[in-house]
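Ticket #208: bound-state structure for 5-O-phosphono-beta-D-ribofuranosylamine.
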Amino acid sequence: MLKIVVCVSGGGTNLQAVMDSIADGTVTGTKIIGVISNNKKAYALERAQKAGIPAFCVSPKDYEVREDFNQAFLHKIEELEPDLIVLAGFLVVLPGEMIKRYAGRIINIHPSLIPSFCGTGFYGLRVHEAALERGVKVTGATVHFVDEGTDTGPIIIQKPVMVEESDTPEILQKRVMEQAEWVILPKAIDWIANGKIEIKDGKVISRQ
Ligand code: GRF
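RESOLUTION: The complex was predicted; output attached.
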């Protein structure tokens, strides 16, 4: 059984997609053992509680020094002892120590086809604004392993989504979530839980 901790900052629709996929058997061999938010008001925490999943808030606002927050966050993760950490709309830069300690055991969902519209500053609506500004006809979402860089880790799965001429950033964001994010995040977790992928030479390949 793959024990996962999901880290969230907002609405938690990706968390919901993972919970639903475990409940309906689309994702197997996986148990969510905890949800951590940096934001007390995140609706994602309520979603977790409703599903009977332990939910915690570790907020930088409660610590004067960033390093103290980093330690508290890492401590909470260590206490839970996850096999995999899933960043599902988590807006906090992870402590470097944590990325090292959990190398190959942290994944993130990003709402574009990496390497487009990713890296520092590309989060939330900004990603979709940039895609519309550039006039791309196709965008999408990516699930990748987390390394020391921003959105630079090995890519696990991507799914394209068509852009329409009448799109606003909000409309495009919604379509990318519905058509791509909520599909590929559960799928990536299922692949990992069932030993279907491995990282080789910095790339994700399927296990034969
Ligand atoms: C998603 O677009 C995700 O890709 C991201 O932030 C959003 C989170 O949405 N980086 P939710 O909290 O899962 O509803």
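RESOLUTION NOTES: DSSP finds six helices and nine strands in the chain.
TICKET STATUS: resolved
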